[in-house]
Design brief:
alpha/beta; 13 strands; 27% strand; globular; Methyltransferase FkbM domain-containing protein
């Protein structure tokens, strides 16, 4: 593994050479900045946040800086990625972030997951608990096996003792439904805005489930490249991020009952 230290829009970051997300951040000085702008619009200084799938912290850091009087609980199961995440949190002098090297799912358990030396050029942000590094293509790098704890948010003591929860952000690469199923009590108690990755083939199940929890879902599809990017670089790397931005329905209007509801949310 080779790392590189960069000063980006939201602070200093130690990134991995050859990692897809790191390459975007090194090129443009930011990562999925449209999402960051959306988060900053819905958060306040006092907001509490849960982030499942924090990766290197390229969203963790700007979220924690916005909610600097609240708490951010983040989870990342990959040991090496988790260590870099913690380093990035520390480099940016953030004391309101609570980081856990754990997976998040439907119930408490232990899981054998793959680890690697991160020498292969790859999208390490696509790691999943069930498919490891091969969620997009077959990973060709060296593989080792490690054990990691899987927790469910409903049994996380500190999260359940919060006064409020503004945002639940989930990027679990196909494990997203299990994360929600293990957080039903948290969701019912706090009714946070839920921002969740949703590949098109997985989305119908997620949308139906969230409708049953009385949430209205909106497609949030954003371009990773922005013309006004922090480094003012021309487009050399491109791609789209596909998520659902989900809001609790008030007074049971417009949701619930297992209805299939989704609207396109345009945010740029």
């Amino acid at each position: 593994m080779k790392t590189v230290l960069h000063q980006l829009k939201w602070g200093n970051f130690n990134l991995i050479q050859g990692d897809m997300i790191s390459d975007f951040a090194c090129t443009y000085g930011e990562w999925s900045e449209v999402e960051v702008a959306f988060f900053h619009d819905i958060l306040t200084e006092q907001s509490n946040i849960v982030e499942v799938g924090a990766n290197l912290g390229l969203h963790t850091i700007p979220l924690a800086k916005k909610a600097n009087k609240g708490k951010l609980f983040c989870f990342e199961p990959q040991r090496i990625i988790f260590q870099l995440l913690c380093g990035n949190i520390t480099m940016n002098n953030l004391t309101n972030v609570y980081a856990y090297q754990q997976g998040v799912g439907r119930e408490q358990s232990k899981c054998e997951i793959h680890s690697t030396n991160y020498n292969e050029s790859w999208n390490y942000g696509s790691f999943s608990l069930d498919k490891s590094f091969s969620t997009e293509q077959d990973y060709q790098g060296e593989i080792e096996t490690e054990q990691v704890d899987i927790i469910c948010l409903d049994k996380h003591q500190q999260i359940n003792q919060l006064d409020s929860l503004t945002l639940l952000k989930v990027d679990a690469e196909g494990f997203d439904l299990q994360v929600l199923q293990g957080a039903e009590k948290v969701i019912a108690k706090y009714q946070p805005i839920i921002f969740i990755e949703a590949h098109f083939y997985q989305a119908p199940v997620l949308i139906r489930y969230l409708n049953q929890l009385n949430y209205q879902c909106y497609w949030f599809i954003s371009d990773r490249y922005q013309t006004n990017n922090f480094f003012r670089q021309p487009k050399t790397l491109t791609g789209l991020d596909v998520n659902l931005a989900c809001f609790p329905c008030k007074n049971n209007v417009g949701g619930g009952g297992g209805e299939y509801q989704v609207i396109l949310l345009i945010y740029q």
